[in-house]
Specification:
The structure is a single chain. Mean pLDDT is 93; it is low at 6-28. By secondary structure, the chain is mostly helical. It is built from 19 helices and eight strands. A two-stranded antiparallel sheet has the order 1-5. A two-stranded antiparallel ribbon has the order 2-3.
C-alpha cells in the first residue's frame, strides 16, 4: 500500500446538469463520470482516493482533536492564540462555526462521497471479478469507518449511500444513531465476505477481512452488544493472523509498521508530489523542530501509568510521552520547556533523520490493533459476568507491556522484568475488573485518538468525572454540534 500511495489522487467533479447554455461547457479535467470507472486502473485509482480521504496528509483531518484534546488525556498545547477553535473544543465552549467541526464533517463526507461514486459505477467496470469485488469491499469498509467516526462525534447524521447524481441525493435528513450503526454493520458484513485475509507487496495496508471483523467488534462494543463483540473476535481469531508485538513501541515506528498486531492503519509515504506524508508529526513536534506542539499530554494522563515500589514506570509511559529525564525521538534530552504542560506525545512523531521535511512523515496512523481487540474481548466477557475469563485477555495486554524489558535492548536493565511491574490482575470482582479494563485501555491506547469516545460510551458519571473542570456537561456535550455550514445548505437539518 505504501507504493500504491504513489498513485496520484484525482479529483472527480460531476455535473448535475446545466441550468443555462452558457454553463453547459465541456469539463476541463481529464475525466468525467462518463469517461471514468471504465477499467481496472480506474477502479484502483478510485479506491486510492477513498483511502486518501481517511489519511492525515493535510490539516483537514482533526480526528485527534475529538479523540484526544476533548478528553482528559490532553490539552490543545501550542501557542496561546494559535488554532483557537481547538481550544474551544477543549473547553466545550465551541459554536457551530468551529473550524474543527467543519473540517472533519467535510473531510469524512468527502470520503463517503468518493466511496459512493465507486460503489455506484464500479460494479459495471469490466475487469477481474475477484479484484473488483475486493475493491468494492474496501470501499464499503472505508465508508463504514467514516460513518463510525461521524456517528461517534456528531450522533445523528445523514446517511448517504449514492453519489449526488440527482437533487434527491444531495441533501438527506439526519438518521437515528441506531440506523447509522445498522448501515455500518451492513457495509462491514459485505466487506467481510470479499476482503482477503492478508496482503503482500504493494497491497500491504489495504483493508483486510480481519480489519472488517475488528471494526465489527468495535461497533458491537459501542452499542454494548457484548455477544456480538465476542462473535466478531472469535471469527477474527480464527484467521490466525494476529498477535501482540513483543515490543510495544514497534507499533509506532516507520521500520516496523504493518506488523502482526496491526489490523488497520492508514498509510503515509514521504517525499511524494502531491504530498502523501503525514502532517501529524508537525502538529505534535516541538517548536525547535518547526513543530506546533499541539495535543500535549496532561499530568493526569502521565499519573495514570503504574509505577513499582522501586520507581520503575510502566514502559508504555516513555514509549508514549516525552518527559524530563528521558530522551526525545531524535536522541536528545527532552526539555519540558518545549510544551506548556511539560510533556509531548511521541506516537506520531518521526525522528528528523528519517524524513526529508517535517509535516511529510512516512509514519502511518494505526487505527486498530490486536491489543484493542483483546481489551474489547475482556470488556465483553466482564459485562456478561464472565469475569474470570475476562482476566485472560486483560492480563495478556499487561504481560506484553511488562515483558518489553525482555525484548527492547534500549530499556534500562534489559533482560529482566523489574519486580512487581504490571502484575496480573487476579481480583474477580466485576466492578474492579471493569475499572481495570478501562484503566488499561487508557494507557495502552493513549494518544491513538480513542479516549474521548471511550469516555462517552462509559456514560454520564464516568464522562463528567473525567472531564470535571472543563465545562463539559454530558447532556449538552455527549455529541458535538453539526457545523453551521451544513445547516445553511441542507434544508432537512434544522438543529
Amino acid at each position: 500500500m505504501k507504493s500504491l500511495n504513489k498513485v496520484l489522487s484525482i479529483l472527480l467533479i460531476f455535473g448535475l446538469g446545466a441550468c443555462s447554455d452558457y454553463l453547459n461547457e465541456d469539463l476541463q479535467g481529464i475525466y468525467s463520470n462518463a469517461t471514468f470507472y471504465q477499467s481496472e486502473t480506474h477502479a484502483l485509482l478510485a479506491i486510492t482516493g477513498v483511502y486518501n480521504a481517511a489519511s492525515f496528509v493535510s490539516t483537514d483531518n482533526d480526528l485527534w482533536v475529538f479523540g484526544d484534546v476533548a478528553s482528559d488525556d490532553a490539552t490543545k498545547g501550542g501557542l496561546a492564540g494559535d488554532q483557537s477553535d481547538i481550544q474551544f473544543i477543549d473547553e466545550f465552549t465551541y459554536s457551530r462555526n468551529n473550524g474543527s467541526l467543519e473540517k472533519i464533517w467535510r473531510r469524512y463526507y468527502e470520503g463517503i462521497s468518493r466511496a459512493n461514486y465507486l460503489l455506484y459505477y464500479g460494479p459495471d467496470i469490466s475487469m477481474d471479478i475477484d479484484l473488483k469485488n475486493r475493491i468494492l469491499g474496501e470501499a464499503k469498509f472505508l465508508r463504514a469507518y467514516f460513518y463510525f467516526n461521524l456517528v461517534n462525534i456528531f450522533g445523528e447524521v445523514p446517511i448517504k449511500l449514492n453519489p449526488p447524481i440527482n437533487p434527491d441525493e444531495i441533501n438527506k435528513p439526519k438518521s437515528a444513531i441506531a440506523d447509522v450503526y445498522d448501515q455500518i454493520e451492513n457495509d462491514l458484513q459485505d466487506a467481510i465476505a470479499v476482503l482477503e485475509v492478508k496482503y503482500s507487496g504493494p497491497d500491504v495496508g489495504r483493508a483486510t477481512k480481519g480489519a472488517a471483523l475488528g471494526m465489527l467488534a468495535k461497533v458491537g462494543l459501542f452499542q454494548q452488544r457484548w455477544d456480538d463483540v465476542l462473535t466478531a473476535v472469535s471469527a477474527l481469531d480464527a484467521l490466525a493472523n494476529y498477535g501482540l508485538e513483543e515490543v510495544y513501541k514497534n507499533n509506532f515506528l516507520d521500520s516496523t509498521q504493518n506488523n502482526k498486531e496491526s489490523l488497520f492503519e492508514l498509510q503515509h509515504l514521504s517525499g511524494q508530489a502531491p504530498k502523501l506524508g503525514s502532517h501529524l508529526d508537525q502538529y505534535f513536534s516541538p517548536a525547535k523542530d518547526n513543530g506546533y506542539y499541539f495535543n500535549v499530554p496532561l499530568q493526569d494522563f502521565v499519573d495514570a501509568f503504574e509505577v513499582t515500589a522501586g520507581n520503575v514506570p510502566d514502559p508504555r509511559l516513555d514509549y508514549t510521552v516525552g518527559r524530563i529525564g528521558q530522551k526525545w525521538v531524535n536522541g536528545e534530552d527532552f526539555d519540558p520547556a518545549w510544551s506548556p504542560t511539560g510533556y509531548l506525545q511521541k506516537k506520531h512523531v518521526q525522528p528528523l533523520r528519517e524524513e526529508p521535511i517535517i509535516g511529510d512523515a512516512s509514519l502511518n496512523y494505526v487505527y486498530l490493533r490486536y491489543a484493542d481487540i483483546l481489551l474489547m474481548k475482556a470488556e465483553a466477557l466482564n459485562e456478561l459476568s464472565r469475569t474470570t475469563e475476562a482476566l485472560l485477555p486483560l492480563n495478556a495486554v499487561r504481560k506484553r507491556a511488562r515483558e518489553c524489558y525482555l525484548f527492547d535492548t534500549e530499556l534500562p536493565d534489559f533482560g529482566t522484568v523489574p519486580a512487581d511491574l504490571l502484575p496480573d490482575i487476579t481480583d474477580s470482582n466485576q466492578q474492579t475488573v471493569r475499572e481495570a479494563i478501562r484503566q488499561e485501555r487508557r494507557v495502552e491506547l493513549g494518544f491513538e485518538f480513542h479516549r474521548f469516545f471511550d469516555l462517552m460510551r462509559y456514560g454520564q458519571a464516568a464522562a463528567e468525572s473525567a472531564l470535571a473542570g472543563t465545562g463539559f456537561n454530558y447532556a449538552l456535550h455527549r455529541y458535538f454540534l453539526i457545523p453551521q455550514s451544513e445547516l445553511d445548505t441542507n434544508p432537512f437539518i434544522n438543529n
